[in-house]
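User: Before I run my own analysis I want an independent prediction to cross-check against. Here's the chain; please return only the structure tokens and, at the end, one sentence I can use as a sanity check.
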Amino acid sequence: MEQIRKKHWETVYETKNPDQVSWTQKVPKIALEFIHSFGLSKQAKIIDIGGGDSKFVDFLIEAGFQNISVLDISSAAIEKAKKRLGNKADKVNWIVSDITAFEPSETYDVWHDRATFHFLTTKPEIEKYLETARKSVMGYLIMGTFSEIGPKKCSGLEIKQYSESTLTAQFNGGFEKLNCVIEDHITPFETTQNFLFCSFKKRSN
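Assistant: Structure tokens:
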């Protein structure tokens, strides 16, 4: 499954520009608002899961954060991001990995995921993701998924929709929900995708 998934995303990023994929977002407003609400130091360790060619990393660099990691299954996506950032790419730790195979060598103050988690549709994959997050997140988690009225597929792949209660239930073992926001994402094709964004804090016990 991992190899099939990798081949799919390598093809997507090798053949499509940002204006040709639905997830392109000019400004990740909600995620940035969550980040700033946490009161982090600029040395906070932040990882963007499934960051791809997203500009989220650009905004983190601009905000002065100094310990940023971006993980994506597609090496083509990461190469695109590096090229876009130029010399600034040297400020980022780039990781090519399927999230279900990711074995972090460090812990993170913030784990950000916009639309990777909802591609995991089997119980073993979801459990592996949750186990990794519980082990490696010491501070906060930001999760963005399609809502119950959002799309049922993305990039031709099945996804798992979430409501505030079902997403909270998934992360209840280890995390406390802080806030959830619903957003209509307007794609480059002028279509609408309904997203659910929730922020969580690692439980101390």
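Sanity check: The first strand starts at residue 45 and ends at 49.
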